[in-house]
Amino acid sequence: METESRQHAGSPPAGRPADGNRIDRIWSQLEKNVQRAGARRIIDLFADDGHPNGKSRFDDWSARSDDLLLDWSKTNIDAEARDLLFELAEACGVARARDRMFAGERVNNTDDRPALHTALRNLSGSPVLLDGGDVMPGVIDTRERMLAFSDAIRAGTLTGSGGQPFADVVHIGIGGSQLGPEMACLALRPYHDGPRVHFLSNVDGAHSVDILGLLDPATTLVIVASKSFSTPETMANAVTVRGWLADALGEDRVADHLVAISTADARVRAFGIRPDRVFGFADWVGGRLSMWGPIGLPLMLAIGGGRFVEFLDGGQAMDRHFRDAPPARNLPVILGLVGIWHGNLCGYSTRAIIPYDQRLNRFAAFVQQVDMESNGKSRRLDGTRVVRDTGPVVWGEPGTNAQHSVAQLLHQGTRVVPVEFLVARHGHERERARHHRMLVANCIAQSEALMAGRSIAVATGLMREAGYKGEALQMQAAHRVFEGDRPSLTLVHDRLDPRTLGRLVALYEHRVFVEAAIWGINCFDQWGVELGKELAANLESWVGTDRLPDGRDSSTLGLLRTFQHLKES
Ligand code: F6P
């Protein structure tokens, strides 16, 4: 994975920080360390455990923030590598970059914008300055309007056009305008005491048919959530759902059922949504970081304003921790550095997020966007090509389901995938205590099995006991060997409540930021999504026609021909 850095050896790229030589030295020391790591096993790093008066590796390689515990001991990072990683963060200016972000500097250089999503969860009463002005009065005003609106919907004082309270909410949005609130609504199911919330994201007509088929337009509130208010999928769904409302209730009643969340006031007005039903936010909030403000409205409707504020409080607690905790105890910094170790030093190109929590079912999908849209970049801030691999492929499934689908590859495949386990000390279901014990046992067992593995000697003994002999014994034993030495992290929290979810989301946001700062990339833009959008807009005018565009490859033309039957209806 360091192929490019080798190609570029001796020709430092433009746009490097001033202490580039120091950074090069640290990378090269880390590369030497990782070569030695090839000869040591993670389990060997626990050799000093039990030493009289000594701390265990778990004590040394775990960090806490309140009840949050991050165990990073099951990685092949030894004391030297750990120190070098912290030195790398310092030399790359992670703390400086963090302070610039919080201070509202234009850290998103290609859009010429700050990244001030942290202001949306600022409950401290302190100002957040941007170009000399405080952004907080606007943030608070919008939040107050959201709270009043949400309270009225939940209390049934704000009703549908026929006077019936809203029983269902359809939130139309995609990507950052959907993944966060959808993930959070699932995660915080025990706190739901408001209307049912449904998320419509895919332009596939099947999605709207399946959702609308369950609902009564008279008792349905529709939120159109789009920062740009021009995302084609969202706008197509918005038009369809608006039509569904109009057909059932009459055009003059539609506005009572519509809400918009957007930064694009003019487009929202043109769509016919009343100004008092629009919740705006500034362009300095990135889509994938926007669930803390109006994009979080469906969550607020589901769990109530008070609990939504607890969610914000959790996010802010993580902001404080990120700013104040020393690197050695700083969870986002550690998480980021472990990511650098696995991606850039060990060459592992993916990471799996396996929450042992059914309600974190969509957490990996959410982190996927936060991580891959932010750090899937090949250019440094100044436009020069990066010299190391950047963001990994992020994927995941909740445990224990993952154990029955992806775990085979994690344990015995030829590729090593570092795993990040998440688990709560307590479930919400007191009446399911045994289930929670099983869940926890499975989570801990997975990390132990990944690291410790099972030797050929043990496997042979087991197969001999099972009655195998000779070549059959060898063959059967070989299949039961677990090479082990596979790294994982475990993140433990007390209970998945709104505040904890806020801390987890902010932790992963900041982790992505730490890694970006080390690579010197802009984690706040997303130019890589544009080309596909442009081509789709162009191709739509050819799909379902007898004509074919000029100058396209035979695959694209052949596929278009395959869909010539799709006439417009
Ligand atoms: O996928 C690209 C993207 O711009 C994301 O960054 C964003 O979250 C999503 O589309 C939705 O955008 P919008 O909120 O403008 O509809």
Write structural notes for this entry.
The protein starts with a helix and ends in a 7-residue tail after the last helix. The strands form 3 sheets. A 6-stranded mixed β-sheet has the order 1-2-13-12-10-11, with helices on both faces. The chain has a 5-stranded parallel β-sheet with strand order 6-5-7-8-9, with helices on both faces. A hairpin with a 2-residue loop joins strand 1 and strand 2. It is built from 22 helices and 13 strands. Helix 12 crosses helix 13 and helix 13 runs parallel beside helix 20. The protein has 569 residues and is of the alpha/beta class. The radius of gyration is 26 Å and the shape is globular. The N terminus is likely disordered. 6-O-phosphono-beta-D-fructofuranose (F6P) binds next to loops.
Describe the protein's topology.
Elements: H1 3-7, H2 20-37, H3 57-60, E1 62-65, E2 68-71, H4 79-91, H5 94-102, H6 117-120, E3 129-130, E4 133-134, H7 136-155, E5 168-172, H8 179-187, E6 196-200, H9 205-212, E7 220-225, H10 232-249, E8 258-262, H11 265-271, E9 278-280, H12 297-303, H13 305-324, H14 331-345, E10 350-356, H15 363-375, E11 393-395, H16 407-412, E12 419-424, H17 433-452, H18 456-465, H19 470-479, E13 488-493, H20 498-519, H21 530-540, H22 554-562
Parallel strand pairs: 5-6, 5-7, 7-8, 8-9, 10-11, 10-12, 12-13
Antiparallel strand pairs: 1-2, 2-13, 3-4
Helix pairs in contact: 2-4, 7-12, 8-12, 8-15, 12-13, 13-20, 14-20, 15-20, 18-19
The protein binds 6-O-phosphono-beta-D-fructofuranose (F6P).
6-O-phosphono-beta-D-fructofuranose binds next to loops.
